[in-house]
Structure formats: C-alpha cells, structure tokens
Amino acid sequence: ERPSHSEQSWKRLYVAARPPSTRSAVIYPAENDRWVVTLSSAGRDYPSTEEAGFLEFSRSLHSPAIFEAIKDAKPISDICAYRGMANRLRHYEKSSRFPERFVVVGDAVCAFNPVYGQGMTVAAAAALTMDECFKYQLSKPSNHELTGLAQYFQERLSREISKSWHMTTGEDFRWPETKGEKPALLTRLTQLYMDQVSLLGAESEYAHQRFLEVMHQVKPFSVFFHPKISVQVFKQVMAHQRQI
C-alpha cells in the first residue's frame, strides 16, 4: 500500500541490473492506491521472501530509488517467489518425420526468461503465422488436404521466433552464470551498443519509445541504428571519452 506521504514524480519505476550484478527491480501501480513490487536476480542470487530481507535486497540495488519508495510502504500480501527463468527452444522444424495435421506452438516450442516480457508476444505472432500458413496452403490448387502444412508452419514459426530469441539470450549472456553456447563477438558488440542506447533512453523520448517498440516487436531491431539514435550514441560516447 503506497505511503500516504509519498510524493514521487514517476508513474512506474524500473531499476535495471548493472553487470556484473544481476539485481534489478520494478514498481508499477495497481488499483486502490497500491503498488506491485518485483525484485529479480540470477545465478542463484535469490531475493528474499521475508520482509526484512526483501527490503535489504532493494537497498543493495545500484540506485536507492526502489528502497526509498517502499521502505515506509505497508505490505498487504505475502512475498511470492518464481524461479523459472530459463530460455528454452525446441527445433521441431528440423524433424525429418513430423506428423501431418499436428502443430506445436507457445511454450511447447519456445519459452523465454519472463523478465523480458516476450512470451505472450511470440505466442500471438505464432497465431498470426498459422493464419498466414493456412491461407497460403489453401490457395494452392488441389491441395485442400493440408498435406505438408504442419512442417511448413514449424519452419515459418522458427524464423519468427528467432527475432526474439537472439535478443533475449544475448542479454542473458551478459552474466557469466548463464549456461549455454556462448554468443559470437557480434553479440558482444551489440550489447555494448545497446548499453549506450539504454543510457540515451533516459534523456531521449525518441530513443526510449523505439526501445519499447522493439521489445514488444512493434518495430524491428534495426530501428536502433536510425541516425536519430546512432548519431546521439556516437556523441554520447565521445563526450564520455573527453571526460576520461
């Protein structure tokens, strides 16, 4: 329950992890003048489910904003823990004997670390992909039996999933505790560039809006390299170098 004397200027508050630390937190409002508060981390560095430990975890973040917001707030529920943070992808499109009239969608194909909010978006994209595949298959002459549709759909779905998969896993590989095949040099360079985009988003409404649109798959990743962002990133880096 939000403190009665709280005079915060923000509507929602997010403190991102700053590698090598994996600790982050978010607050967003709910009805009846309440907040939903979520603390997160990785590498078995679990936030406490006890109130005192929960507050101490929030105090340990690189920004004190979350702790200052909740230290006088009234807890009105138990603290719930969720630890299913793995990214998982199954390549059904590579099966040499995939059954006809049977398709696999949703988490059965690909499950994401939920902190990125990609799972429901990808599931919705899968539904749209299936619709497109049906229309394509039924438009072919003398092929209303749907033969080959399942395999075709899984191949199309794999390409659709890859857009989010590389972005999500690339972010998770910032931390050495992440298990899996290590990313290529290009991924590391992309991470460094995205660090600058994130910093720019704190000052630029345009950069922040593009970031949200890419995360929710409204626009492609390539928008981050538009001159309105890339030029500002270059200036930001040069200004930092002069300070050094």
Q: Could you explain how this protein is built, in words?
A:
- The chain is mainly α.
- The chain has 7 helices and 5 strands; from the N terminus they run E-E-E-H-H-E-E-H-H-H-H-H.
- The chain has helices spanning 51-59, 65-70, 119-139, 149-172, 185-201, 205-215, 227-243, and strands spanning 13-15, 24-30, 34-40, 88-89, 110-111.
- The chain has a 3-stranded antiparallel beta sheet, with helices on one face.
- A hairpin with a 3-residue loop joins strand 2 and strand 3.
- Helix 5 (185-201) packs across helix 7 (227-243).
- The radius of gyration is 22 Å and the shape is globular.
- It starts with 12 loop residues before the first strand and ends with a helix.
- 16% of the residues are buried.
- The model has no long low-confidence stretch (mean pLDDT 87).
